[in-house]
Amino acid sequence: MFDIALIAFFTAFFCYYVQWTFGQPMIEQPLGAGLVAGIVFGDITTGIMIGAALQAIFIGSVNVGGATSADTTAGTVLAVCFVVHFGMDQGVAIPLAVAAAIFVNIIYSLVFNVISSFWAPVIDWAASKGDKKSLMLCHLGGGVLMNLLLAAPTFFAVYIGAEPAAQLMDMVPQTVINGFNAASGLLPAVGMALLLRMLWDNKIAVYFLLGFVMVQYLEMPMIAIAAVGIVIIVVSALRELESRDLRNQIRALRESGVNAGAATVAEIEEEDFFA
């Protein structure tokens, strides 16, 4: 058990350290952490599947500064570990990962704020000296210290909680597990709903309707839908560039004293449409 917990610990540490030390490449997101955990635990397919499911759940969750909602790295690593090494059903592991991510986030916020309050004066001191080596040491060394502490809950969750969780799952009736499986299928829809709540705009509602029709009625594959989306984006961008160029031309003509024949933006767009 100790070796599995240690592997989970260093997997989480790697994701944290790369995320906060090398320009935030988003490896702490469920997709990135799921891929890393899948590689480490020897089942890349399961890691990606769990990461994709958790990514859909937390896609509308954005951590800004001290305002954090869930530690998705810990939740993803724990879910992959429980499924691959302890044989937990994926439908059970995903809701468990969501609960773990929310709980570990409390520890994450505490560690982050405490380490930052102690480490910030050290960084200020190194910056006031103008010593680049000291600054680099503070940056890399502080990252190691903080992320080791951030990964500690993952270690203890596996070392202490994996076996009791497995025993508990053996006692749970199959009907309850089926309920967990159904709930895990609904959780990504909740995540997408939260994202739509932030992004919804009546001007782009028609594109959501178009996507729904292509998936539900035309049964188009995701690659084809993504290609259609790219075409719409390119066409809209080209249209916007043409409109901007036309406005700039008319503005230049007005400034030079030449009548462009269009007095308002609406007339400019109308002329551009019929051109």
Please tell me about this protein's structure:
The chain is mostly helical. It has two domains: 2-200, no CATH class; 214-274. Helices cover 81% and strands 0% of the residues. The protein has ten helices and no strands. The protein has helices spanning 2-21, 30-41, 44-57, 72-86, 90-129, 132-171, 174-199, 205-216, 222-255, 265-274. Helix 2 (30-41) runs antiparallel to helix 3 and helix 4 packs across helix 6 (132-171). It is flat and about 75 Å long. It starts with a helix and ends with a helix.
List keywords for this structure.
single chain; 275 residues; mainly alpha; 2 domains; 10 helices; 81% helix; flat
Architecture blueprint of SSEs:
Blueprint: H1 2-21, H2 30-41, H3 44-57, H4 72-86, H5 90-129, H6 132-171, H7 174-199, H8 205-216, H9 222-255, H10 265-274
Helix pairs in contact: 1-2, 1-4, 1-6, 2-3, 2-4, 3-4, 3-5, 3-7, 4-5, 4-6, 5-6, 5-7, 9-10
